[in-house]
Amino acid sequence: MSPRRILVVDDSAVARRAITQVIRDHRDLELAGLAENGEVGLRRILAQRPDAVVLDLHMPVLDGRGLLKELQRRGEQIPVVVLSSHVGEGPRETVAALAEGAVGFVPKPSSLTSNEDWVGQLVQLLLKVSRPPAPKSAAPPRPKPIPDSHGSRISAVVVGVSTGGPETLEAFLSSVPGPLSTPMLIVQHMPEPFPAALAERLASRCRLPVQVAAEDTRILRGHVYLAPGGRHLGVVTGPEHSVLARLSDGPREAHARPAADHLFRTAAEVYGRGLLAIVMTGLGHDGLIGSAAVVERGGTVLAQDAASCVVDSMPAAVRSAGLEYASLSPQGLAAEVAARGQGRTTV
User: Fold this and answer.
1) CATH architecture observed for domain 4-129
2) Catalytic residue, candidates 149, 162, 181, 327
């Protein structure tokens, strides 16, 4: 396979040099060009057709979000990875950029020359999002519904999502018709302080009560709870039949913390046959072990369909294991959540 061609758009000469070195040091990546602002970046994207773009958000002339909006307006599908800031308005702007078409982000360290963690994250993300999709193989046989489980009213929904998540979650939650009839708990892979910014955006765009879960948060019907950055989110049974959030700093699961596996497993123990688990777009296989636990307890697993995923790794792992009851678009998943909340099904 030929190297993936990467265009770097950043107004900082130091950042451009550092990212260029990262690209040149990896045999499967190749520098397609450099741009010092979004206006120049747009011209070079249209002329050079890179396989992916590394984008800074704060630039003169045309900033990163302006470039993303212009790409969307033109119908361009080139994957864009954002270099994000933890400080000030950085988390809000990063979440907005992800909802406006960026496929993922890498937190920008204070020193690009002395921090190696961001290098691995950037390379992994660029390799995955710039790779052409693999040919679709025949779908594995669908697991048969468990009697009296898949047509009954659900008690809770859990969601695991990673790369491409903010945009997908916004499409999914904004498509839920009417108030949620159950609680929904979501693991989106992102570090602090980004979950709070994501919760704020989802609450404003989807008209649902969305918050980052804290220790012992009472899990209420109709509310949406996000895992905090860097901590596992689980649930336990509390007093008087209540369900409480339980946070953990335990080991990473499937290379992630928070991990969907952890949430799914603990929720399966609490909700059993009443649990609906959904695995959405993302790198890796987080959600696979947790989905097996959900099915073992009599719950139901749905997956996002490959065509609507930014990265199909997480849903594909669940499909390959034959654990998913159906694969649907974000809008289809929303309709199914609403139907199962009323004891019906659309699939």
Assistant:
1) 3-Layer(aba) Sandwich (3.40)
2) 162
What is the mean pLDDT of each successive set of 10 residues along the chain, which is 347 residues long? 92 92 93 96 95 94 95 92 80 92 85 70 89 52 46 89 95 92 96 94 93 97 97 96 96 95 98 97 95 96 95 94 95 95 89
| DSSP letter (8 states) at residue 253 | B
SS3 assignment, position 337: helix
In the annotation, is 223 catalytic?
A: no
d(CA 307, CA 178): 26
pLDDT at 143: 47
- Let me know if the fold of 4-129 is the same as that of 156-341: yes
The two beta strands, 52-56 and 156-161, are unpaired
189 a catalytic residue: yes
- Is 335 strand, coil or helix? helix
Annotated domain spans of the chain: 4-129, 156-341
For the question of residue 162 being annotated catalytic, the response is yes
Which residue among 51, 286, 305, 312 is the active-site one?
286
For 36-122, strand residue ranges (E) read 52-56, 80-84, 104-107
Between CA 212 and CA 217 the distance in angstroms is 9
| CATH architecture of the domain with range 156-341 | 3-Layer(aba) Sandwich (3.40)
